[in-house]
Design a protein that fits this description.
- By secondary structure, the protein is an alpha+beta fold.
- It is built from 17 helices and 16 strands.
- Helix 1 packs antiparallel against helix 6 and helix 6 crosses helix 11.
- It is elongated.
- 36% of the residues are buried.
Length: 437
């Protein structure tokens, strides 16, 4: 047994589970591109100051969870989320000058230094979108609808779409005063982190995960009660647009989201089966982040889907099994003797060049052992190329599904014949039954 283990909070995705991840990726890609989103790929790490500025100095991510590396005057951080990097790329590459309104999506790993749990890892994967360049409330509704479509595309049922509005700068100023007035007489009952946040950023208190603080927050004032007319109108139009789409949702005053850049519409998708960590998608509007990072005032909205939590939900609903298991090569080449191996090696190369998936033995096994291996690995066809077959310019093809075998010429038509047999087994052609070998 190896004395080395994967770093805490990471996991190896073994060949059997890779098809499951591929299914999630391909399903999401198809839906995202149907909604007009184009993929963007940004670096895994960015300058640390980018996250300090975008996420907020008082957020848990910046204070406790970032993987930061420094050397000399250079400080970089492995991305804890992707929005800041996408906006940086949008500005640095002048996308706003070529076409201000951009629909972008990403798929990839993120990194946060936190205590590993069932749905929380230190390296985790997200599928996310950023729609940059519009404040239209119908875009909010489209984005929320898109998140629901992603979950439905994976077969998930029973999820809840929850939305709220946290308004804009003036709304937040009014709410800040109301929230501080509520918390101040109860401050000693809150956890130490919340007591520290009270003066630095009181909104962080609403995002606390401590049960005692969550219970106290049940009676806290709501953002919706402190929105101005413009923000209320925007939120009303988001709701009416979702209703027009036929999308069910709940207005949840407790949703505030944990990052400083959010404004107006915020939303989460919850799957009750997952227990306390039941949010699989979270996002919202961020109308001032582009300007905060040095660009013009350009509104935007986005979300991220946590792949780990989504896979847990799929597992609970019995949706994973159909996508597990690595599909081996359907064609195996076997060599009756050691002297036949070079010819089998050359034939395998020719068939692969013709686009076929072929494997062969590299362990020096006997003919019988090679046949057993091919059977155990689920091969559809076994090709036997011995000295006799080679001298006659043929290869013996055994159909493992029907125990029928037939010889075929070693010429340019062999790949065509093999493709035909893979879809139409030899038994259907009334070939001679296999002889004992």
């Amino acid at each position: 047994m190896s004395k080395y283990k994967a770093a805490r909070g990471t996991e190896d995705i073994l060949p059997e589970r890779v098809p499951l991840y591929s299914f999630v990726h391909s399903s999401c890609r198809g839906i995202l591109e149907r909604f007009g989103y184009a993929e963007i790929r940004t670096p895994l790490f960015e300058e640390t100051r980018l996250f300090n500025r975008s996420l907020g100095e008082t957020t848990d991510i910046v204070e406790k969870e970032m993987f930061t590396c420094s050397r000399g005057d250079t400080s970089v951080t492995f991305r804890p989320e992707a929005t800041a990097g996408v906006v940086r790329a949008y500005l640095e590459n002048n996308l706003h000058k070529s076409k201000k309104f951009q629909k972008l999506y990403y798929i990839g790993p993120m990194f946060r230094f936190e205590r590993p749990q069932a749905a929380r890892q230190r390296q985790f994967e997200q599928v996310g979108i950023e729609a940059i360049g519009s404040h239209d409330p119908r875009l909010d509704a489209e984005v929320i609808e898109l998140g629901a479509r992603l979950l439905e595309g994976l077969g998930l049922k029973g999820f809840e779409v929850r939305i709220n509005s946290i308004g804009d700068v003036e709304d937040r100023d009014r709410f800040r005063e109301a929230l501080m007035s509520f918390v101040r007489p109860r401050l000693s009952e809150y956890c130490e982190d919340c007591q520290r946040r009270f003066e630095r950023n009181v909104f962080r208190i609403l995002d606390c995960k401590q049960r005692t603080c969550q219970a106290l927050n049940k009676k806290a004032p709501a953002f919706l009660d402190h929105l101005g007319e413009e923000s209320l109108t925007h939120f009303d139009q988001v709701r009416s647009s979702l209703e027009a789409l036929g999308r069910e949702f709940l207005v949840d005053p407790e949703i505030v989201r944990g990052l400083d850049y959010y404004t107006h519409t915020v939303f989460e998708y919850k799957i009750p089966d997952l227990g306390a960590r039941n949010t699989v998608i979270g996002g919202g509007r961020y109308n001032h982040l582009v300007a905060e990072l040095g660009g013009p005032e350009i509104p935007a909205i986005g979300f991220s889907l946590g792949v780990t939590g989504t896979l847990l939900a799929m597992e609970k609903q019995g949706l994973c099994e159909a996508h597990l298991g690595w599909k081996d090569c359907p064609i195996h080449l076997v060599s009756p003797s050691e002297g036949d191996r070079p010819n089998a090696f050359i034939l395998a190369g020719e068939l692969r060049a013709a686009g076929l998936c072929v494997d062969l033995d590299y362990e020096g096994k006997s003919l019988k052992a090679q046949m057993r291996t091919a059977n155990r690995r689920g091969a559809s066809l076994v090709l036997i190329l011995g000295e006799d077959e080679r001298s006659r310019g043929v290869v013996l093809v055994r159909d493992m599904r029907s125990s029928v075998q037939e010889e075929f010429p070693l010429d340019g038509d062999l790949p065509i014949e093999l493709r035909r047999i893979l879809t139409e087994p030899l038994a259907a052609q009334e070939a001679n039954p296999c002889e004992d070998s």
